[in-house]
Amino acid sequence: MSLDATFERVSMPLADPFTISRGTQTDAENVIVRIADEGGMTGVGGAAPAAHYGETAGTVEAVLPDLLAAVEEVGDPHALHEIETELAAVVNDNPAARTAVSIAVHDLAAKRLGVPLYRLWGLDADAAPATSFTIGLDETERVREKTAAAVDAGYSVLKIKLGTDRDRELIDAVRDAAPDARVRVDANEAWTPREAVAKTEWLADSGVEFVEQPVPAEDPEGLRFVYERSALPIAADESCVTLSDIPAIADRCDIANLKLMKTGGLLEARRMIAAARAHGLDVMCGCMIESNASIAAAAQLAPLLDYADLDGSLLLADDPYDGIEMPAGEIRLGAQERSGTGARLADE
Ligand SMILES: [Mg+2]
What we know:
Layout: E1 4-20, E2 23-36, E3 42-47, H1 57-74, H2 80-90, H3 95-113, H4 117-120, E4 133-135, H5 140-152, E5 157-161, H6 167-177, E6 182-186, H7 193-205, E7 208-212, H8 220-229, E8 234-236, H9 245-249, E9 255-259, H10 260-263, H11 266-278, E10 282-286, H12 292-300, E11 307-308, E12 321-322, E13 344-345
Parallel strand pairs: 4-5, 5-6, 6-7, 7-8, 8-9, 9-10, 10-11
Antiparallel strand pairs: 1-2, 2-3, 12-13
């Protein structure tokens, strides 16, 4: 069997500038990978590189030729374990680049078998939790307006970015505009341990569900300090990058937040989910700002999750790819009529 692989960079403007405690993003550069079999059936995947983890569109493009050569060398798109192992052997790090290839191969393998990927994995579409919709940092009035707009659009689960000297004001505005929504917050490492513990007290009073990454990943003892004293469950994101991080965070948080772009592939993501379960952690899957070329693949994992944060495509002004429908945040895996991940060019 022979496979033919190509890639291209896509630049996608965001619907609104997106701000977290580390900075503001106005567009997203993804790299789309396509892998075709001899019959012309094509699997698609996407890389959404994150500078925080040392990747850019340029670094992804630099390593893709070697990664794709490895896939062509294996030749069998159903040899998922062998391919993902080879990808990790060919380049160190570069997880978003490897993930894009892993997604494209999984998409192709499932398409060749004529089933949606979640069916290939034997998962129950009805078990998928709703995705949260994220409200980035902004002027307090803008946060209130964006929250009201999200509620009007039907979203019942909101993730609010914090990490300012106005955090309490922001949450009061959110609660004003969305008294009934399920609300989670993400500080993106912005707080000190003591500050984080104090903030969980009034966040709990505001009915917040959990707090994501309160303190810097470089301070694991700080994370433990917060976890042991927090009034709310703690999710680890920047502290939870690869499989080997799972045992390290097991006594420092309640929820492991994995993202495909951190893991290096779909098999590795499933290993992380299994490892998190083995350590008694709940599991969340988040995302970068991503095209449906990769979000559709993350959605296939949704039945394995306690919490989904897969709004990457929803934050784009325009996504060149369609994926799994998420009306009002409901991940409609069961409505998926297409085999593979469900990602396809919007004009296809
Ligand atoms: Mg986060």
